[in-house]
Amino acid sequence: MSAPRFLLRSLARRQPSARLFTTTHRRLSALPVSITGTGTGTLQRVAVPGKPYAFTADTYPVLGGADSAPSPVVYSLAALSACNQVTGHVVARDLGIRLGEWEVQVEGLLPTKTLVKGEEGDPNWEKVTIKLKVQTDVGEEEFARFVGEVERRCPITALFRKSGVVYDSVWVNEKL
To answer: What is this structure's pTM?
Structure first.
């Protein structure tokens, strides 16, 4: 089931630079995105209007959750992982690079003094490291160009970097 056309047009009107998201992706100047969330306690069901999928978020028992679903902080790292792969696909298409399998590992260090204890401070990640192994059909020079473009164009990478977190990435080029 897709979003009603009037809803998409409404979103496009509210954002003057947005165009309807169609197969003509290269003409899209902004992608309107929205979610809805409903729940009680720490458990929330998150849905994407007009899409057939949803997911659930909970949190760790130390924060009052039942640990029955991934926590929002886990989803933030998952978003970083997936967004790099999606952006990599887009960049590879633009550069004429063939891709195979991806292996992505993300680790983060999240301070708890503000979130859990309520102390003054920054609740943001202290450090996030992403390690990516990507199968490609290019040599190291072209792979370095590919990585630079992925990191420049990935919106979730930008979100982490601009937030002030210590951000490290390690990319490995594996032959396809």
So the answer is: 0.84
